[in-house]
Amino acid sequence: MLPEPIETTPAEPIIEQPQPARPSREPFWDYTDVALVIGLTFAMLAVAAILVVVVYHGALLTDSPGLVLSSNLALYLFLYVAFRVAFKLRYGKPVFSSLGWRPARYNTLFVASGGVVLAFAISGLASLLHTPKINSEIEKLLESRSSLVMFGIMAVTIAPFFEELFFRGFLQPLLSRSFGVVAGVLLTALLFGSMHAPEYAWAWQYALAVALVGAVLGWVRARTGSIIPSTIMHACYNAVFFVAAAFQHPK
């Protein structure tokens, strides 16, 4: 008598569940990229200065408003090139949107008027701190009509844009990721004030005032998630001081 066959149920196929995608790091860059961007920027500035010395035999290396303006423009151009190298070549990412130049919910009139109010508030604070009278490079830019116009255009357009890209777009998100949002805003503000200190002969009153401006701009950037509002506020802040300086130096 043959044993009855044992009925077996076919094994169900094993279906692998898809693994959830790991969230991308925000921001995606790190402190190596900070060193790369800064190093490339100043290396290109150094090469440009050497070329000027070689080609023009130092004739252009004079203490003139034209040199100050052209040096700042070169700095911003080289900074953008360094960002392109770091973001496009290393990560395949766009520059401007990665650094926070993206749409956000904000009131344009509010941030613009905020920049004006901030300028008057900082001016009042500077008065209370008894900021010393110094002969800054900015004073030299107001000596002629042409340099005055060029300085005004740069002060309310190019300078705020690139300063916001670097400080609130590049440094602040990285510092906030490492130390928290509040610390990131404050540390970036201190760096912002320190960068401007040489323009005012390292007077601590000016450095403190500029750092406070950086803290306000950093708060706007953190609150909106974009550098567009902080750039608008920065531009309006600069515009108030430019108009005041222009009236004090009529041509």
Could you explain the architecture of this structure?
This protein is mainly alpha-helical. It has two domains: 28-95, no CATH class; 103-251, no CATH class. The chain has eight helices and no strands.
User: What is the succession of H and E elements?
Assistant: HHHHHHHH
User: What is the average per-residue confidence, as pLDDT, rounded to a whole number?
Assistant: 86
Mass-distribution shape: globular
What helical percentage do the residues reach?
Answer: 55-70%
Q: What's the number of helices?
A: 8
Total beta-strand segments? 0
The Cα radius of gyration reads 26 Å
Largest sheet: none
In terms of per-residue confidence, which ranges show pLDDT below 50 for 5 or more consecutive residues? none
Alpha-carbon distance between the two ends: 121 Å
Number of domains: 2
List keywords for this structure.
mainly alpha; 251 residues
